[in-house]
Amino acid sequence: MSTHAKRERLLLADLLEAAGPSAPTLCDGWTTRELAAHLVVRERRADAAGGIVLAALKSRLERVQAEFAAKPYEELIQLIRTGPPRMSPYALKQLDEAANTVEFYVHAEDVRRAQPDWTPRELDAVFANALWSRIEKAARVLGRKAPVGVVLRRPDGQTAVAHRGTPVVTVTGEPGELVLFAFGRQEAAQVEMEGDKDAIERLRDAKLGIAM
């Protein structure tokens, strides 16, 4: 049975392939080539991937990622599409689903929404609920650097507290949009924000997500 992560992996590979190696993305100013290299290193080079969250390993991550970015773009796409090697922890279906569903969804939107003619993607209810479940659990981590209190709210009224504090900004949107917002793509996320005007502007410019 196909998983959300597997489906998003193949969609992301297709988007990267169609965009070509020099297209812009929403991810830290990277081109599609640099994003593809990041994805491959994350799954295949555990010795360097720790630099995503650990400052002490950041220089090693950047060096290894640059080495992979120099490879043929078609090779990078194929490595993403076929998935991690058998010995990688990501080869375990449960970990793949837990760690990659949101990762691949966000990066797919990084590619899609960097294009001038992008249109919203309609998510099925099962996938939307899966994204909401993950954002509920990770909200406090993703919102830890928020300068104001943050509440994420679905249109049906379900909420998750991303950061405690005052004043409070309530961010309302569909699960996929809330995921993008919480992962630092505030400008690209289709959400509504309610609260103090200054607090909203501070939140819009805040560094959200797992970045150091």
Kindly describe this structure.
The protein has nine helices and four strands, in the order αααααααβββαβα. The protein has 212 residues and is α+β, with helices and mostly antiparallel strands. Strands 2-1-3-4 form a four-stranded mixed beta sheet. α1 (4-19) runs antiparallel to α5 (73-82) and α1 runs parallel beside α6. It is globular and about 50 Å long. The model has no long low-confidence stretch (mean pLDDT 91).
Subunit organisation of the chains: single chain
Q: Can you summarize the main beta sheet?
A: 4 strands, mixed
Q: Secondary-structure element order, as H and E?
A: HHHHHHHEEEHEH
Secondary structure tally: strands: 4
The strands making up the biggest β-sheet line up spatially as 2-1-3-4
Distance between the termini: 36 Å
Question: What integer value in Å does the Rg equal?
Answer: 17 Å
Poorly predicted segments: none
Output the number of helix runs: 9
Shape: globular
